[in-house]
Amino acid sequence: MKTFGNLILATCCLAFVVSGESNAQSSKKKDKSAPITATAPQMQQPTERDRQISEALFLDGMKYYMLEDYQQALQLFQKAYTVTPNNAALNYKIGETYLHLKDSEAAMPFARAAVALEKQNAYYYLLVTQLHTEKKQFNEAAQAFNDLLRNVPNSEEYLFNLADLYLSQSRFEDALKTYERIEKQFGEMEQLLVNRQQIYLRQKNMPKAIQEGEKLLETNPTEIRYFLAQAELLNASKKPDDAIKVLDKALRIEPNNPFAHLMLSDLNRQKGNKSEAEKQVKEAFRSPGLDIDTKVRILVDFIRQLPNPEVEGVALELVDLTIKNHPNEAKAYAVAGDLQTIVGKKAEARDNYLQAVKLDDSHFKIWQQVVLLDAELSEASAMVKHSEQALELFPNQAVFWFYNGTGHLITKDYAKAVRSLEHGKRLSAGEPELLVQFNMQLGDGYNSLKEYEKADQAYEAVLAQDKNNQHVLNNYSYFLSLRNQNMQKALEMSERLVKQHPTNPTYLDTYAWVLYKSGKYTEARKYLEQAVAISDDATIVEHYGDVLFKLGKKEEAVSQWQKAKLKGEASAFIDKKIKDKKLYE
């Protein structure tokens, strides 16, 4: 039959292994009665009956402990303690139970008593170190580790714990000394070299860090990550040539390592070797081992440098390589679209954005880029189609209603245009700048539907916010003149626009046309002559012919009409004007 002391110690250690030295949760409230404090070991030995009573109480306590009912366990342990206060295992278990109840202060005397009673048990010291650490008493925790190492045979494994403790407190010199002790005991170890190097880096001691890196390369001659790390250190120490030599060695071991190629690219760029830098970054992008996110980050760096003819070519090649190696990644096509948009390859950019939304249609900004490029490419039907697709996903985004309405406006489906624009306008109630855009287009749409009152209201709403809005000043004045309504207002608006933009042929033509409709043919001729000197637009040339006809210059008028017809964009009356040599409006 086991002795009482041995039985308690065995059970205690088993429980310790289960708990894993960590703080467990307690669902019970702490007993508010005064805790028992550990006293100095007493010399009086318990009787056999005392030992039996204490052992029974301890075993009952362990049952509750295993069920994580720490409060009940503590009460039983305390009763056992009153009988056998000098039992090391019992003191340890009381301390550990207090730790589970998150009362480090009460636990400490029992943990210390356990160590005092039995100096060669590592677990007792570990409890003391844990309690000191809980209270952020790191010097005391380190001392407890050192006591453990001094008093417990074959405990050198805890040197690693001691080193970690020093490291966590930035006690670098103590950590380094502990690594020396470890090395003497266990020999040279890879992790020690890594840890030492990290300490030297934190101390900004680059020469020492590089020395540790050299040792790592000697002991691990095929480990690529150490070559890359060493190259980084050498580069940081302004030794790019040495870094390049290390990377060349790395590539002899692993020729397609993309990160080595990237570092070589950066090093050659620093040295001004542009062609080699481009070659190396392309090699990296050809590698399937370089993940898509890293490629995107690099491409974003290129995008930040654009527009720049010196990097445009290689950047475009890199996006092509990215798509080739990651054909099912939406972000590959999206970043390609971003880059191509900036360099003016709008059609290619739009196609790549469309491919991106095929793979992942959840990105609002990519859809926005699609319809914006449709507009810039003057592809109204595509704008309608793509905005409708976007609206299925983002029905409350006013911008897509705007592009949808604008697309319908350009394709002359005016009823659909104003429906979309009115809906988007309601969604833009709190955005004054966007409201201006909607009202601009609504003015044009309602005018085309001959709902002139609504058109004028829309235009006036724009001018109330932006009195010099060029689009509205031009279109509003032109449409008023066509309707022969409020001609004085039309003259004022078109004249203001010409004064602000005296060399714009479209605005010159509008002002001239308003003057023409007002019967001021000589003044109209003056502005149209300025316009045709700048532009050969068919409408402007035809208007010039109309004014000349009104001034009695019939042959010159016919000549201008013929020029306008050659442009193919003149009015529906152009053939009749030329044939009959008469003015039709």
Structural topology:
Blueprint: H1 4-19, H2 48-66, H3 70-83, H4 88-100, H5 104-117, H6 122-134, H7 138-151, H8 159-168, H9 172-186, H10 190-202, H11 206-219, H12 224-236, H13 240-253, H14 258-270, H15 274-286, H16 292-305, H17 309-325, H18 330-342, H19 346-359, H20 364-376, H21 380-393, H22 398-410, H23 414-427, H24 432-448, H25 452-465, H26 470-483, H27 487-500, H28 505-517, H29 521-534, H30 538-550, H31 554-567, H32 574-580
Descriptive account of the structure:
This protein has 585 residues and is an all-alpha fold. It contains 32 helices and no strands. It has helices at residues 4-19, 48-66, 70-83, 88-100, 104-117, 122-134, 138-151, 159-168, 172-186, 190-202, 206-219, 224-236, 240-253, 258-270, 274-286, 292-305, 309-325, 330-342, 346-359, 364-376, 380-393, 398-410, 414-427, 432-448, 452-465, 470-483, 487-500, 505-517, 521-534, 538-550, 554-567, 574-580. α31 runs antiparallel to α32. It starts with a helix and ends in a 5-residue tail after the last helix. The model is unreliable at 1-43 (pLDDT under 50). Residues 1-24 form the signal peptide. TPR repeats lie at residues 54-87, 224-257, 436-469. Keywords: Repeat, Signal, TPR repeat.
